[in-house]
Amino acid sequence: MEVRKLNEVEAFTTKDGSEIRELLAYRNSSIQKQSLAEARLPPGASTTPHFHKITEEIYYILSGQARMQIGEEARDVQPGDAIAIPPGEMHTITNTGEDTLVFLCCCAPPYEHDDTVLMPE
Fold it and tell me: I need a labelling partner for 23 at 20 to 30 A (CA). Which of 2, 3, 4, 76 fits?
């Protein structure tokens, strides 16, 4: 049985600028076709607008308040909200609260820097 403890997983910064701790993926477990990570954004911070060429994502908000944008649509999200992000869709999330935004990010196939395309400013 493979169990990862969040406080024992080293954090790294993704290409879009969020700090994540990859809990399960091919890099650290027997999981091969997806990845699960906890992401954090400080108050006022946003991920760089980006899309993934082949990866689909699910964000699940654990704590904090945010504004999620996918394509031209934007809406406020809060704890308990699950957000579907299809491949090829530009997206960004902004922490609109006073506390750190914490959310889970599930990627299939697993997250890779090379699959992340940053949008021009």
Answer: 76
Rounded (to 5) percent helix, strand, coil in the chain:
5, 45, 50
Question: Which domains are present in the chain?
Answer: 15-108 (2.60.120.10)
Q: How far apart are the first and last CA of the chain?
A: 45
Q: What is the pTM of this model?
A: 0.94
pLDDT digits (tens, 9 = 90+) for 43-91: 999 999 999 999 999 999 999 999 999 999 999 999 999 999 999 999 9
Asked whether 90 and 57 are in contact (CB, 8 A), the reply is no
Task: Go through 35-54 and write b for each residue having 16 or more CB atoms within 10 A of its CB, e for each that does not.
Answer: bbbbbbbeeeebbebbbbee
* Residues 88 and 43: beta-carbon distance below 8 Å: no
- Six token digits for residue 20: 């994540």
